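Operator note (shift B, R.M.): manual run for Fe-S protein requested after the automated queue skipped it. Running by hand, logging everything below so the morning shift can see what happened. Input copied straight from the record, untouched. If output looks odd, do not overwrite the archive copy; leave it for review.
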Amino acid sequence: MDLLREVVVLLHIVGFAATFGAWVSESVARRFRMTRVMDYGLLLSLITGLALAAPWPAGVELDYTKLGIKLVVLVILGGVIGMGSSQQRRSGEPAPRPLFYAVGVLSLLNAGIAVIW
Ligand code: HEM
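Run finished. Output pasted below as returned.
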């Protein structure tokens, strides 16, 4: 069970890597677009995060204030990616820059909360 939890944490980190990695590559390429990889990464972070929020195996201690804040940040992040995607689809232009930058900040914020809190 410990190994299974560790594998789920690994998949959870892969979700972060996908969302943040897609954001970094869009930034470096100066395209500034929301991409499907960001969506998939966030979905993976959500599913694995919720699985990790259950107290298993027995004896695992969880900080539900921290997890609640991470869930709120993830929901806001999903909203930001959704708004940016629909605006870029409508206009054909890159996502509005403040929304694009918010994706990087919120994604890194959640990883920071996970590691530093
Ligand atoms: C964008 C969203 C998220 C990102 C970037 C993220 C990032 C991370 C990272 C990097 C870790 C590994 C930290 C470590 O093991 O030291 C982690 C662990 C964890 N995350 Fe997330 N996370 C996100 C959302 C969530 C959500 C929504 C939940 C649950 C409601 C959650 C629950 C957990 C749990 C239970 C762990 C295991 C370690 C711990 O108890 O802190 N995460 N997260």
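Quick read of the result: Helices lie at 2-28, 36-52, 64-91, 97-116. Residues 34 and 62 are 32 Å apart (CA to CA).
Leaving this for review. - R.M.
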